[in-house]
Specification:
This protein has 250 residues and is an alpha/beta fold. Helices cover 41% and strands 13% of the residues.
Length: 250
């Protein structure tokens, strides 16, 4: 696993772990990392196995349990026994699984536009086989990524600074390695579809910022799927306020 471990100049004694979404990388947390580090948080942001700069195995049994175990092993390696876990999109599903598996290692759980709030199978969404998803992924281009992100991530409003994140993803679909990244993306798509976490929300024991029992909900009604990128000032103000409130209650 490739990761960033960023130390603040004036530590406040707390560590935040940032878990990226399926179409994101650790690097897309750039502004959030700087914001947290500036106020004293140590930040660890990994690329999960199969994503971005981390290893992309030819054969791997992808599950949120396995990714959570990988993340926990990384934190143990970095001598982090407890942390605030922030998960975005697919990373929200992973963060939930991590909190369920390692509740004593989580100070707070923050879910940012998480997937997994419904069971798509139960909702009647047709299943796409891994082979079919692989063929779809092979067609990925800069233009297809940008079109998708414009529709779902930024509320139909594009800014030139978003292009770098599109380029980051598109660069992985250039030979050599195009087939491997497409295969891993197909496997992780299957993981998201077949491993819903919603049925276990009631078992989460840690303080949570979102919409499960005993959780706090913060809404951004004018923003798309990536508020930390689309409106970083708004998102970071809300995040830091929630973390400060949680700290005062501990």
């Amino acid at each position: 696993m490739i990761f960033m471990d960023v130390a603040p100049n004036k530590p406040n004694g707390r560590t935040v772990v940032l878990l990226h979404g399926k179409n994101f990388c650790a690097a897309t947390w750039e502004a959030t990392i700087k914001t947290l580090v500036d106020v004293g948080y140590r930040v660890i942001a990994p690329d999960q196995i199969g994503f971005c700069k981390s290893t992309k195995p030819e054969h791997y049994q992808y599950s949120f349990q396995q990714l959570a175990e990988n993340t926990h092993a990384l934190l143990m390696y970095r001598n982090v026994e407890r942390s605030i876990v922030v998960g975005h999109s697919m990373g929200g599903m992973l963060a939930v699984r991590y909190a369920l598996m390692y509740p004593d290692a989580v100070d707070e759980l923050v879910l940012v536009d998480p997937l997994g709030l419904e069971d798509w199978k139960a909702e009647g969404v047709p299943y796409e086989s891994v082979d079919s998803a692989y063929q779809t992924q092979l067609k990925t281009t800069f233009e297809s990524i940008k079109k998708y992100q414009l529709k779902f991530y930024y509320n139909g409003q594009w800014k030139p600074e978003y292009d770098r994140w599109v380029s980051m993803l598109a660069s992985m679909y250039v030979d050599p390695g195009k087939e491997r990244i497409a295969w891993n993306q197909a496997l992780t798509s299957d993981m998201i579809f077949t491993q819903p976490v919603m049925y276990e929300f009631e078992h989460i024991r840690v303080k949570t910022l979102w919409m499960i029992p005993d959780a706090r909900l913060i809404e951004f009604p004018e923003l798309g799927h990536a508020p930390q990128i689309e409106a970083p000032e708004v998102f970071h103000k809300a995040l830091l306020g929630a973390l400060a409130e949680g700290r005062s209650q501990n």
